[in-house]
Amino acid sequence: MKNPSARRRGRPPAFDRETVLAAARETFWAHGYEGASIADLTTAMGITTQSLYAAFRSKADLYRAALEQYRALGAGTFSALGEPIDTVSAFERILQGSAAIFSAPEHPKGCMISTAALNCASENDMIADHVAALRRRSLDTFAARIERGIREGDISAETNPRALARFLGAIVQGMSVQARDGASLEELLDIASLAMSELARHRV
User: Fold this and answer.
1) Which residues are bridge partners to 69 per DSSP?
2) Beta pairing partners, 203
3) What distances in angstroms separate CA 7 from CA 4, 13, 52, 101, 180, one per listed residue?
4) Of 5, 54, 141, 183, which has fewest CB within 10 angstroms of its CB?
5) What is this structure's pTM?
6) DSSP letter for each residue of 95-114
């Protein structure tokens, strides 16, 4: 007769990586990197601590994987930057899409990257640096799209691409904070509309 306890000590049950990663993503999104404990994560993911470390190696690596999954959620919105449309229309889609994502009722409010790891203990500097690098990458992408608009003739040659990119990045980050504080979709769209009025001043 087989020993039941021996079976329990065997290989842990398999789980769908993307499903448990989504649960971790939601937990980090709601509580931040430092605010989400291993107990919080394993409870949300429905797995043991041993399984978490076996699959993702560390909390930091789990967080990085969750960030990548989060970025994939907004890929459709940010794809506007590469489409054959004018610069103002591209950023209008980004701002309106961000407002929708930040205020959606089915997940935590705001942007997981914009407000993530802004203040960390020194032992988590690598995480803070990683998230800051993602934000810088977004600014670089914004600036490159504005430069393209200048080359293609729909944005004024007098425009400072980097400054305008930082302005738009600040709007996105500000919308994220406003959403965390309870701003509705309509209120976020009002912010986006004001930002679009400023961007339109650079249109040729």
Assistant:
1) none
2) 155
3) 5, 11, 20, 44, 45
4) 5
5) 0.85
6) HHHHHHHHH-TTS-SS-TTT
